[in-house]
Amino acid sequence: MAKKQRVGDKISSLNVFLGILMTLISVIYVIPIVLVVVNSFKSKVYINDKEHFFKLPTEESYIGFQNYLEGAEKIDIAHSFLNTVIITIGSVAAIVLFCSMTAWYISRVKNYFTHFLYMLFAISMIVPFQMVMYPLSKVADELNLNNPVSIILVYLGFGAGLAVFMFAGFVKSIPLEIEEAAMIDGCSPIATFFRVVLPIMKPTAITVSILQAMWIWNDYLLPYLVLKKDYKTIPIAIQYLKGGFGSVEWGHMMAMLTVSIIPIIVFYIVCQKYIIKGVVAGAVKG
Known about the structure:
The protein is mostly helical. 76% of the residues lie in helices and 0% in strands.
């Protein structure tokens, strides 16, 4: 009994230590976001002052929502926000739908073609974007993929590798007998997928959606290379707050950064419980 108690005390102490360590790491990650939000309510003079940068707004430095209003007017935030929403929702929907179907086909049809196809998706994850970005921009321009709707195809191509890999791993944990029972009841393969397989894959689908949405929403380089200048996403529009000779409207930029991160943070907080369900569901077969 005494030995078990000592082991229990060691485990308890380790848990406390890990809890403190994870808390400190979390604080380190959160501090930059807090500084951006806090300074978005200060005037430019106080933001540029190192002494006041790390302090909360005072009566002298606080200017309310002035930075938000002026920044939104300068970069036409409504138009940029709409473009970003269209691209993100469309791309995530396409990735989840087509990649889940592809993963199901690859996992259930065993032949050399599906094995080769799976390897192609896996290899695509290790190809750096910098290797293909210039040919990509040329091809996208030639095929008129340089607008918020057509760029969804480009994101589908780049997001398919990870999505297919995750979906395929989950499909292997689904008992084949469930699909066979549905087909015996008269379901076609398409009906079996949408009525039986896809609902079971919901936790993984939401996990993939969160990962892809965070990437696409915050992506700067791909839209900058592919989209026409008339179509600006939020990350691109924020860069236009830089003036000549390296001058930056820090108040406006921090306000717009705050606006850009709020939707994706809310989306993550709302959906994070499904990530846990996805991990648990994938760990238990059947």
